[in-house]
Write a structure and sequence with these properties.
Blueprint: H1 2-28, E1 31-37, H2 48-70, E2 76-82, H3 88-95, H4 100-103, H5 110-122, E3 127-130, H6 134-143, H7 145-155
Parallel strand pairs: 1-2, 2-3
Length: 156
């Protein structure tokens, strides 16, 4: 079943790997950095499966962060909330869509995204948002969900 495979690859594998690494991370005061997406903070039409696993990653790892804090364990959990990042695959896919080349103008450079993720983990940030527009969109959803829904609908 496609959805089960999708969940196993994009959610269960993250949870299992973190669970296996946790004893060593507790010993060393280590860091977990979880790559997520703005699609885990706001709904995106046509990406229901993707959004569901990204929302689940946020829920699991945010809960794990709080559990570790409550147990006074020196393990940080950083959730990297990423927007559009330029990759060759993204460019190839968008070039096939009408107006897709224009959408690439908003994609952030992959090397700068990597630096932001590494910096977030190194500073033990709770969450990092990259590029900068991801933070206000994620926060707007919590404050004004209907406005965010209208924005998402108008841009998709």
């Amino acid at each position: 079943d496609f959805f089960v495979d999708f969940l196993n690859i994009n959610l269960v594998s993250y949870v299992r790997l973190a669970s296996l690494a946790l004893p060593l991370l507790k010993e060393s005061g280590g860091h977990l950095v979880v790559i997520s997406s703005l699609a885990g903070k706001i709904p995106v039409p046509g990406l229901t499966f993707y959004c569901s696993v990204k929302y689940a990653l946020d829920g699991f790892f945010s809960s794990l962060r709080v559990e570790l804090m409550k147990a006074q364990q020196d393990v940080s959990v950083t959730l990297a909330v990423l927007g559009d990042i330029w990759t060759p695959r993204k460019q190839e896919a968008l070039e096939k869509l009408p107006g897709g080349k224009k959408m690439l103008d908003f994609a952030a450079a992959i090397d700068k995204a990597a630096v932001a993720i590494i910096r977030g983990g190194a500073t033990r940030a709770r969450e990092i948002y990259y590029p900068v527009y991801t933070w206000p969109l994620a926060k707007l959803r919590a404050l004004l969900p209907r406005l965010t829904d209208a924005f998402v609908l108008s841009t998709s």
